[in-house]
Amino acid sequence: MSEAPKYDVFQAIADPTRRQLLSLLSRQEMPVKEISGHFPMSRTAVSKHLHVLSSAGLVRERKVGRETRYRLDPEPLQELQYWLNYFEQFWDNKLSMLKYYVENEGNRTAE
After folding, report:
1. Rounded to whole angstroms, how far apart are CA atoms 54 and 67?
2. Is the pLDDT of residue 5 over 80?
3. Tens digit of pLDDT for each residue in 44-85?
4. What's the CA gap between 6 and 36, in Å, rounded?
5. Model confidence at 28, in pLDDT bands (50, 70, 90)?
6. What is the C-alpha separation between 27 and 13, in angstroms, rounded?
7. Cα 18 to Cα 53: distance, rounded to the nearest angstrom
8. Please, are residues 71 and 60 in contact by the beta-carbon 8 Å criterion?
C-alpha cells in the first residue's frame, strides 16, 4: 500500500484558497463545518485543501468527540521565511538600481 503524497510548504501555499484557510485558522481553531461556511465550495473541497495543509505540517488536527478541529501550526512557515530572506538581497539590489535609473533619467529630461 503506497503512502499519500507529502506536500511541502511551497506547494501548500501556492493555492489562494489554502492561503485564505491559513489566515482563517490563524485566528482560532475551527471544525470543517465552520470553516466551510467561509468558502463558496463544498465541505469535501475544503477537506481536500486542509489535507494538503496538514500534509505540509501547516495545519494540526485535533479530535473533539466526533468532530475534527483544525488549527494553524506556523512553524513550517519558517522554511518559507528563510527562502524569502535569501532572495530579498536580489530584490533590494534591483530596487536600488531602478531608483538610480529613475532619478538619473529624471535629471536628464529636466535639462
Report:
1. 16
2. no
3. 999 999 999 999 999 999 999 999 999 999 999 998 888 888
4. 23
5. very high
6. 17
7. 7
8. yes
Q: What does the radius of gyration of the chain's CA atoms come to, in whole angstroms?
A: 21
> What grid cell was written down for 35?
470553516
The per-residue b/e assignment along 54-65, b for 16 or more CB within 10 angstroms, e otherwise, is bbbbbbeeeeee
Statement: the pTM of the whole predicted model exceeds 0.85: no
Q: What H or E segment, with its residue span, contains residue 111? A: none
pLDDT band at 92 (very low <50, low <70, confident <90, very high): confident
Extract the C-alpha cell encoding 40.
463558496
**DSSP count for the chain of H helices, then E strands:** 5, 3
Torsions phi, psi for 2 (to 5 deg): -85, 150
**Amino acid making up residue 3:** E
